[in-house]
Amino acid sequence: MKFAAQENLVPGSTFVEKVKNLAAYGYEGIELNGHGLAERLEEVKSALTDSGISATCICGGFRFGFLFPDKDEREQAKQEFKQMLALAAETGATGGVILVPIFGPPQLPDMSPWKTAVEAEEELLVEQLRELAEYAGQQGTKVILEPLNRYETHLLNRLEQAVHICKRVDSPHMTILADFFHMNIEEADIAKAIKEAGEWIGYVHLADSNRLVPGLGHTNFKKGFAALKEIGYKGWMSLECGVPGDQGKTLAQSLQFMKSQL
């Protein structure tokens, strides 16, 4: 398993500085922010060349309108997501692009007795993911489906729910994200949830119970990391969390803590 951090967590006034700092702290990867990525593509590619740091995946940079009632909004969301998939390929971020289907409550109406709003959302989501996963495969990358906790979304709160969607999409270019912060809220047993999700896990986000860097809360990372080892996971584990105090010092210290939990 390899450690990375989201680019916005790393000190530095330029992307080049962020990459150099991250390498100095001992990390191997950087998770790219999709916002404005097309405009700074050459800067990103140049900074990563011979840096010892790899792009892991892309987070954000597109509208979250996949499950909105307006067809044009859904189509716009898909086109923007496809652009992120193409940029992932350009930057070498073969891990893929993270997709959260929706934030907050349902936007679709309840159409019972035909389908509830959530049932309709699932059907709509699966159809769109089939299209996006096919495009991801053409680009040589993947769609990373992320479950969130119940306070951020009503849909897909646990790993098993994301796996269910992936099985319906039935594509080798679909995978799920296991986020320790969200799992700490939603999963009865983080290690068990990881083992049951198994090969579907393609990316990992790290944050402690208080959403700060690992080591500053009470999450049992040792058991979670052991479960990832058991399923044969060898991919990226990226920080998505608060970094208090001196960012550089905190990032370096948290890395040492995480390695101790392996």
Automatic annotation (TrEMBL):
SUPFAM superfamilies: Xylose isomerase-like. Residues 20-260 form the Xylose isomerase-like TIM barrel domain. Keywords: Isomerase. Pfam families: AP_endonuc_2 (PF01261). GO terms for molecular function: isomerase activity. InterPro entries: Sugar_Epim/Isomerase, Xyl_isomerase-like_sf, Xyl_isomerase-like_TIM-brl. This is Sugar phosphate isomerase/epimerase. It comes from Lihuaxuella thermophila. The lineage of its organism: Bacteria, Bacillati, Bacillota, Bacilli, Bacillales.
